[in-house]
Amino acid sequence: MIIFISCIILFLIGLYSIVTKRNLIKIAIGFALMEYAINLLFALIGFRKGALAPIITSVDSPHNFVDPIPQALVLTAIVIALGTTALMLVVIMRIYEKYKTFDIAEIKKLKG
Amino acid sequence: MIELYLFLVFMIVAAIIATEIKDLLAAVISLGAVGFSVAIMFILVQAPDLAIVQIVVEVLTVVIFVAVILRSTHIDETVGKKIAGTQITAVVLFSVFAFLFLFAMFKAIQELPAFGNATMRIAKEYIRLGLTQVGGANMVANVILDYRALDTLGEATVLFTSVIGVVALMRKSGRKK
């Protein structure tokens, strides 16, 4: 219970960074933090006490595994997070080359 | 399971440092600390596949962040500046939203099974039949490559689209000066 709420707090720190920070790199960091928090929440929901990783080592032994479906979904989400972060950072780099600043207020001023 | 709580406290502290510090390089290193803590927590909750992928992705993320910062500036000039009116509005709106969101999530989490007691309604069938139907010993690989293969196809599409975007934006020729 508390562990899930802690994940939500981590998510809200990322959202705070996106909504209130004026530096573009800080906004990208906020996105990354939100992704980590959600991935971790999914992996924690699928956990069972005393269970093993979902890999069959022998056919006869009882299959006492943690839930593999959240892990499969998160595996997809982690890779997509890398793609979006890379694209976001390339756009940020081009914005810096044009305006010579990361401050979104300055970028709005220079738009003309 | 006390180590999970310790790692979560460490991650929250590192996340606050990453958002508030003036040096962007230090902020990215704090982000890396959060990411590697996530990898260690994946190992602790019995998800070795996720831990492997998380370590690879985390290294790449930090390298891309550092490359962008080295090509620009590593000082966040917006820290310590006079706070504008729009920023106060943003903080107030965020506080209201955060309160409502925490309340809603508190209600939603009470509906979930308690930590450590996942119900596994679908996964039971996957685990029982996975070895005979698909033939793989790793259940996560069975799910992403067979039972939910279309999901993985969508993931590959998104990944290649983002790679095309990155290549199109990074190229030197054809850009107007």
Automatic annotation (TrEMBL), chain A:
Subcellular location: Cell membrane
Primary location recorded for the protein, binned into one broad class: membrane
Segments traversing the membrane: 27-47, 72-96
Gene3D superfamilies: 1.10.287.3510
GO cellular component: plasma membrane
Entry-linked InterPro entries: CPA3_antiporter_subunitC (IPR050601), NUOK/Mnh_C1-like (IPR039428)
Keywords: Cell membrane, Membrane, Transmembrane, Transmembrane helix
Membrane topology, from the record: Multi-pass membrane protein
Protein name stated in the entry: Cation:proton antiporter
Family membership: Belongs to the CPA3 antiporters (TC 2.A.63) subunit C family.
From TrEMBL, chain B:
Membrane-crossing residue ranges in chain numbering: 25-45, 52-71, 83-106, 153-170
Principal place of residence: membrane
Keyword Transport: yes
Membrane-topology descriptor: Multi-pass membrane protein
Annotated compartments: Cell membrane
Keywords, sorted A to Z: Cell membrane, Membrane, Transmembrane, Transmembrane helix, Transport
InterPro entries xrefs: CPA3_Na-H_Antiporter_A, MrpA_C/MbhD, MrpA_C/MbhE, Nuo/plastoQ_OxRdtase_6_NuoJ
The keyword Transmembrane belongs to this UniProt entry's keyword annotation: yes
One Gene Ontology CC term in the entry: plasma membrane
Sequence ranges assigned to domain MrpA C-terminal/MbhD in this UniProt record: 9-71
MrpA C-terminal/MbhE domain sequence ranges: 118-172
Name of the protein in question: Uncharacterized protein
Native source organism of the sequence: candidate division WOR-3 bacterium RBG_13_43_14
Lineage: Bacteria, Bacteria division WOR-3
